[in-house]
């Protein structure tokens, strides 16, 4: 199938930034200098990990949130509030359970003041188009997840949007249902059976982005900045196993697993070892064991190991980042490889693993080493967690600071560098081995 020809710009974002105030009145930067264009006839996928500001960016585009700075133009006009001509499909379906399928689809038209007869005609046509003919009188509780998401698509398409926004629209579905919906959507798009002139697809599924889009935009995290844009010059229908497809998937994996110290000339303020990903120790051990085993023998293609372990981006990338921080593995060219230390960890018994992990935590995780150093220096060798939270809030939002600290505490406790009393929030040296952090 030939893809639609691109034409005029539907959306222009220029140097868009957004901050939110923390409880202390300080600003937390979520988006920083984001510039993005979507043309007629184009599907653009926006990829980014948690903390990249994808949801905030969607809200800014749809007019639900104002940017702190920068310019947002839709069809050449400034966006100052909710925009006619935009519609969104959500991850969680967002259907009203007390309304039927038909009533749910009619809601947007009702809000637009469309007369009842036309509203009914357009809603029935949208339901038929999306493959739900016969379920007009059903309630959401009677439908499967895939059918409920079809109602979400019908509700978005019935208003005849010029630009369709999709916020993780397939991520709550099982694999087969999601694949069927993707296929149906791309067929409707290519056969010009929907009035939409452009689609912005927010996803954390790399293969989904390569399968559907004409261009992929990758956002970095904390704050969200555009790291790269990749054009996909492959005609539909696309073969997931084709060399060109796999090459692009590998390229995206490589870009998303890089941890640059600076982006577009901007130096990172937060030490990389303070940016701790949410990674449980048993999951890290499981991933290292899988890498060490046949057929990988210490080195694996990222898409392949992700598929084998059933990991999506949001699960795999934090583990890879944690292994890199701990110097147990490194990623390069879309591959992940165990370091000699990682291989030693896999080959060790339970007690030896704890020793190896403890050495790497104190050597490579600056936050854990800092916590241990402070506890060592304080009278009674005790310190409240709030003391470290206040430090982290200089760099992160309150929620992110708490998450990062909890990761450091989990790793530090497992390594026996310090103990933690959850009720009082006190960190101490009451139980751990006497392992002194280097200054």
Explain what you see.
The structure is a single chain. The protein is of the alpha+beta class. It folds into 3 domains: 9-85 and 161-257, P-loop containing nucleotide triphosphate hydrolases (Rossmann fold), CATH 3.40.50.300; 272-347, Winged helix-like DNA-binding domain superfamily/Winged helix DNA-binding domain (Arc Repressor Mutant, subunit A, Orthogonal Bundle), CATH 1.10.10.10; 350-428. The protein has 15 helices and 18 strands. It has helices at residues 54-61, 101-111, 116-129, 145-157, 175-190, 206-212, 243-257, 281-292, 302-309, 313-325, 340-347, 350-364, 366-377, 385-392, 398-414; strands at residues 9-21, 27-39, 42-48, 69-74, 77-78, 86-89, 163-167, 198-203, 215-219, 226-231, 262-263, 266-267, 299-301, 329-332, 335-338, 382-384, 419-421, 426-428. It has a 6-stranded mixed sheet, with helices on both faces. Strands 2-1-4-5 form a 4-stranded antiparallel sheet, covered by helices on one side. Helix 2 packs across helix 3 (116-129), helix 3 (116-129) crosses helix 4 and helix 12 (350-364) crosses helix 13. The protein starts with 8 loop residues before the first strand and ends in an 11-residue tail after the last strand.
